[in-house]
Amino acid sequence: MAKMLLCLAVVALAALATAAPKPEEKFTTKYDNINIDEILANKRLLNNYLNCILDKPKARCTADALELKRSIPDALTNECAKCSEKQKELSEKVIRHLVEHEKASWDEVKAKFDSTGIYEKRYEKILKEKGVAV
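Structure for Ejaculatory bulb-specific protein 3, as requested:
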């Protein structure tokens, strides 16, 4: 009888542990306050970020560029579910800048992260509503 109660207790604890809500996973907000306008206005800084995320030879990746590079695939796949509101704003601003001013770089980014065009199709309507013509 004691063994049966112990077994039931273990099963009940296991059920509670798996049913307990897990904290929502988010991307780090450590870099949310970077000056994105300064980066976009400075060709050298922008190219450093682009070279890093595109795995260009001799690219020097800063900590924030590495974090961005690691986050892009998940953000695309999961509709930026782990993004903060600030990260969504910054993403839109960067995409707009690349599309309007750095088309060749935008094409390279798309080739690396969206070679099949699935994400462009998925987000095209949203971007157009925000005035970004991809």
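Residues 8 and 14 are 10 Å apart (CA to CA).
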